[in-house]
Amino acid sequence: xxxxxxxxxxxxxxxxxxxxxxxxxxxxxxxxxxxxxxxxxxxxxxxxxxxxxxxxxxxxxxxxxxxxxxxxxxxxxxxxxxxxxxxxxxxxxxxxxxxxxxxxxxxxxxxxxxxxxxxxxxxxxxxxxxxxxxxxxxxxxxxxxxxxxxxxxxxxxxxxxxxxxxxxxxxxxxxxxxxxxxxxxxxxxxxxxxxxxxxxxxxxxxxxxxxxxxxxxxxxxxxxxxxxxxxxxxxxxxxxxxxxxxxxxxxxxxxxxxxxxxxxxxxxxxxxxxxxxxxxxxxxxxxxxxxxxxxxxxxxxxxxxxxxxxxxxxxxxxxxxxxxxxxxxxxxxxxxxxxxxxxxxxxxxxxxxxxxxxxxxxxxxxxxxxxxxxxxxxxxxxxxxxxxxxxxxxxxxxxxxxxxxxxxxxxxxxxx
Length: 416
Description:
The radius of gyration is 21 Å and the shape is globular. A five-stranded mixed β-sheet has the order 1-2-10-7-3. By secondary structure, it is of the alpha+beta class. Helix 13 crosses helix 15. The protein is built from 15 helices and 14 strands. It has a single domain, classed as CATH 1.10.630.10.
């Protein structure tokens, strides 16, 4: 077996600021893929973990979901935050979403919302999504010739879609957006509510307070929306627990729009920085499907998930002991030279495109089809009307180790 080694390059994965610096991040990941693809990371205040940076290894771990478990450490957070989250769960107040669960419970809980994201449901929703895409491109025209594309367009379009699917009132959309920013932006100076895990946990309690009232309302008066499906969902004939119900809302309401925002804004920046590819897509709209996949690969909104070994095992010959955690670096897998031809070239016609931005296996993203449809609709509406576009200032990435992307994208443009 290989001997585990420490590698300073791997410490970037436990440094939220590294994700706000693409060059620094990808330089470290290139090194790890080539020289230390299973790297031990011991970088307080995080507990130690093994960084897995090769596409092949990440897929193998995702397939072995009985060996590598989501519980108790589904994502990277500080030891103090891990301990607080565990205590909150034990007190019946914590977060336990689909990403925290393992089968068979995961499969049963996932089924409650699955029908709302199947192909038929997406076909039924497409007319509404196309209407909203036109609304937001019209808005972009009206507020031009400059805007911050992230805050004005990329946030609001998918937020409106997912909130409408849930059946939430429009006056609450802003609150959901602010809470999402605070939850995913806990490491970012612009977004975070406070500096301590207790202050950041208050964000979760705000979510729970809102969704507890929503659950009571939908159970008393069911309606034809996703919120009612969650509120009245059952597992083995029993209603979901309060924690699981509120957590289901949280993951749908937050990840359901924020990850799409990151892919939309990251995709537009890639087109601006690669004008030949933008023109290629304008000239051949039939490439929109592959272009959307490339935008998703390029931006990789979900940077990682973690798994914990249920038994002693090995990854690429490196021993992983029972109870040790592995960090699945999707952002690295999506630039793996062994999988992608010229992985650092943005190619709107890339095919095949085996990106892992939606995960893989039993935890494949529930809302993947919706995200793809939203992006397709928005860029199909935008590009034919776009006469010119350029940066009006430096783009800014969020500091995060989990979900993130551009938080500001100032652009100057002309739209028909």
